[in-house]
Amino acid sequence: MQGRRRIKVEKDLANPLAAPCGLYCGACAIYVSYHTGDPEPMNRVGRVFAKLAEEGVSGVPPLKEGAEFSLERAQSMKKEDFLCEGCVSDVVALPCRVCALRDCAMGRGLATCAQCPDYPCQDLVSFNNDGIPHHGEVLANTRRQRDVGLDAWIEEQRARWQCPRCGRSLDWYAMRCPGCGADAEETLGSPDLLD
Prior knowledge:
- The chain is built from 9 helices and no strands.
- The protein is mostly helical.
């Protein structure tokens, strides 16, 4: 991923809610909190990451060359570090701004890692297997993108992470819908991400 020539990703080729790595930004706690004004998704993901830190898991995506990110840095982040319109938009939260996977795909002019001739690279496989529950979906998500196309995948994800009762956006770690109170079994199936 080092030494790649920077190529501007054409905006019409990328959907800002499709992170290059295969995550759906519309279910990101940072994105959901920013767009709903509800701090609970960020509080919830903070608890998840604190639990993972106790287990020695950093929770940070692979860092692009020269980037630094630590638990101390995460704890000192300011409100503007959490402004986000999606991973390939012009307004990106700090954890994704320093992501090597994002940097590599964008440097190659790709909307997602699924389009890469080196797919799946070891960095993507390692990210999938790093112990962070929602990261564990990136390989399945990128395979699905390859099978159905990015636009169809986005629509599938939008439906998956939306409460069928009230239509509110849900994040990866939601146990209940903040809009109508439906529990995760009704909305997302079995809520295994916090087990």
